[in-house]
C-alpha cells in the first residue's frame, strides 16, 4: 500500500516522511531539496550552517545568517513546490535571531528540539512558517502544548517524537536509554493522545511523526499503527548521493558494525549516539583543549572551562577533515546499511 499524504495546515506533505535535520553540514540544500522534490519534507540543519562561508572564521554568526538564505534558495530551486524547512536547536546561541532569519527567508517549517521551544510561537507570529517541537516524553509534550495554548492561544502545526534509537543528541538520561527503548511504543501512544486533546481544542490536525531507528517500510507501518501520521528519518538519508556530507563520512556509515555504535557524552549535557572512532576513544580519558570558540551554544548550555571537547570543532572535523578524528553521529540502525543509494530510490523503497 502507498503511504497517504498528510496535511500540515495549508501544506500537503505528499509522502509522510521528514528527513531529519543533521548538523554540521550533513543536511544542507542538496539533501533537503532532493527529499522535498521527491515528496518528503526536506530539513536543512541550522547548526553552523555557514561553516563553508568565507566569513565563517571571522564571524560565524554573520556567515550563518547569510547561509540560511543561500541554502534555502538552492533547496527551493531543486524543489519548487516541495516542503523545505530548518531544524534549529533550542540550545543554539542566538536561537531567536536564527529563527527569525529562517522566517524572513520564507521557510515552510521550523522544527526545534534539544530543549523545549517555549517561545517559538512568538518568533514566527504573523508568518506562514509552520512549527513543530521535538519531544521525547509525554511529560514534555504536555508541558509544551499547555504552555503554547496558555501563552499564545495556539498549538503545534505538527510534532516530532524523538525516541532513544535516534542519531545525535538524545532526550534521555545516559543510564535510561535501554529502559526507554522498551517503553517507547507506550510513550508514543500517550503522546499521540495528548496531541488529540489539543487538536480537538484548536479544531485542527496535529500530525505526529516518529523519529529514531526507523529503518524500513515495516518500521514506518509500525509507527502508523501506533497513531503517528508519519516518520522522521535521518541516518538512512546520509548514505545517498545527494547527502551534503563528504564521501569519507558516508563510507564511515557503510563500514559501521553494530558494535561500533556508542552512546557518548556531549558538551550539550545530553547523551549522543555516534560511531566509535579515534575521537570517541580519546574522550574516554582526555579533555580535548578548545582551539577556538565559534559560539555555537548559548552560555547556559556550554561551560567553556569544563566541557570535555568543543562540539562544533569535533562535528566540523568529521565533515571537513577526517571522520576518524571527529564526531560522527548516527542512529542505532546504521550498521544495517551497506550500500549507497539515491534519494528517489530511497523514497520509492519506503513509500511504495
Ligand atoms: C549525523 C546526524 C546529525 C544530526 N543533527 C541533528 C541536529 O543538528 N539537530 C537535531 O535536532 N537533530 C539532529 N539529528 C537527529 C535527526 O534529525 C533525527 O531525528 C534522528 O537521527 C532520527 O533517527 P535515525 O537517524 O535513526 O533515523 C542528527 C542525526 C544524525 C544522524
Automatic annotation (TrEMBL):
Keywords: Dioxygenase, Flavoprotein, FMN, Oxidoreductase. This is Probable nitronate monooxygenase. Transmembrane segments: none annotated. Nitronate monooxygenase that uses molecular oxygen to catalyze the oxidative denitrification of alkyl nitronates. Acts on propionate 3-nitronate (P3N), the presumed physiological substrate. Probably functions in the detoxification of P3N, a metabolic poison produced by plants and fungi as a defense mechanism. Pfam families: NMO (PF03060). CDD domains: NPD_like. GO terms for molecular function: dioxygenase activity; nitronate monooxygenase activity.
Amino acid at each position: 500500500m502507498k503511504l497517504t499524504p498528510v496535511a500540515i495546515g495549508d501544506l500537503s506533505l505528499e509522502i509522510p516522511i521528514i528527513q531529519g535535520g543533521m548538523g554540521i553540514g550533513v543536511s544542507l540544500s542538496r539533501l533537503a531539496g532532493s527529499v522535498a522534490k521527491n515528496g518528503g519534507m526536506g530539513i536543512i540543519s541550522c547548526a553552523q550552517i555557514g561553516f563553508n562561508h568565507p566569513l565563517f572564521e571571522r564571524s560565524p554568526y554573520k556567515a550563518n545568517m547569510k547561509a540560511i538564505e543561500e541554502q534555502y534558495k538552492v533547496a527551493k530551486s531543486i524543489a519548487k513546490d516541495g516542503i523545505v524547512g530548518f531544524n534549529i536547536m533550542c540550545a543554539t546561541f542566538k536561537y531567536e535571531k536564527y529563527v527569525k532569519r529562517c522566517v524572513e527567508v520564507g521557510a515552510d517549517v521550523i522544527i526545534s528540539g534539544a530543549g523545549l521551544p517555549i517561545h517559538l510561537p512568538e518568533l514566527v507570529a504573523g508568518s506562514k512558517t509552520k512549527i513543530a517541537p521535538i519531544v521525547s516524553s509525554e511529560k514534555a509534550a504536555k508541558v509544551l502544548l499547555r504552555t503554547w495554548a496558555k501563552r499564545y492561544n495556539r498549538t503545534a502545526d505538527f510534532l516530532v517524537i524523538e525516541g532513544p534509537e535516534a542519531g545525535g543528541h538524545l532526550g534521555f538520561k545516559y543510564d535510561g536509554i535501554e529502559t526507554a527503548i522498551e517503553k517507547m511504543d507506550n510513550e508514543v501512544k500517550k503522546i499521540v493522545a495528548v496531541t488529540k486533546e489539543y487538536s480537538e481544542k484548536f479544531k485542527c490536525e496535529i500530525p505526529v511523526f516518529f523519529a529514531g531507528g526507523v529503518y524500513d517500510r515495516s518500521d514506518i507501518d509500525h509507527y502508523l499503527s501506533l497513531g503517528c501520521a508519519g516518520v522522521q528519518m535521518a541516518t538512512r538519508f546520509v548514505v545517498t548521493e545527494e547527502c551534503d556530507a563528504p564521501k569519507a563520512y558516508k563510507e564511515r556509515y557503510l563500514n559501521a558494525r553494530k558494535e561500533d555504535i556508542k552512546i557518548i557524552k556531549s558538551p550539550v549535557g545530553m547523551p549522543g549516539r555516534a560511531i566509535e572512532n579515534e575521537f570517541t576513544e580519546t574522550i574516554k580519558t582526555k579533555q580535548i583543549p578548545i582551539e577556538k570558540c565559534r559560539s555555537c551554544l548559548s552560555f547556559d548550555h556550554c561551560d567553556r572551562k569544563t566541557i570535555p571537547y568543543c562540539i562544533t570543532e569535533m562535528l566540523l572535523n568529521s565533515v571537513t577533515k577526517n571522520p576518524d578524528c571527529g564526531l560522527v553521529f548516527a542512529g542505532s540502525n546504521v550498521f544495517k546499511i551497506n550500500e549507497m543509494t539515491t534519494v528517489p530510490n530511497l523514497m520509492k523503497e519506503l513509500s511504495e
